[in-house]
Amino acid sequence: MRLLLVEDNPRLAGLIRDGLRGQGFAVDGCTGLADAEAALQVNSYDLLLLDLGLPDGDGLALLRAIRRRRDTTPILVITARGGLDDRVSGLDAGADDYLVKPFQIPELAARCRALLRRPGAALGTVLIGGNVALDTAAREVLVAGCTVETPPREVDLLEHLLRRAGHVVAKASLENALYAMDAEVTPNALEAVVSRLRKRLAATAANVTIRTVHGVGYALFTPADGDHA
Amino acid sequence: MPDRLGTGPTLFRQISRRLIVFTLLFALLDAGIVVLTYARQPESLAHELLSLEAERLAALPDPARATASPGLAHWSAQLLTPHTADDARLIDWTRRERIPGGYRISGVRELADGTAPRWVLLRFDAIGVRPFLPVIRDELFEHVALPLVPLTLMLLAFNIISVRRVLAPLRRAEWEVDALDPDNMALRLTVPGEPREVDALVRAVNRALARLEAAVTTLRDFTAHAAHELRTPLAIMQLSLDRLGDTPVKAELQADTDQMTRLVGQMLDLAQADALVIADAESVDLAAIGRAVVGQLAPRAFALQRELVFSDAGGAIVRGHAEAIFRIYRNLIDNALAHARPDAVGDAAILVSAGPGPQLAVRDHGPGIAAADAAHLFERFWRKNRNASAGAGLGLGIVKRLVDAHGAEITVETPAGGGALFRVSFPPA
Question: Which residues of B touch A216 (CB under 8 A)?
Answer without folding.
Answer: 291, 294-295, 298, 308, 310
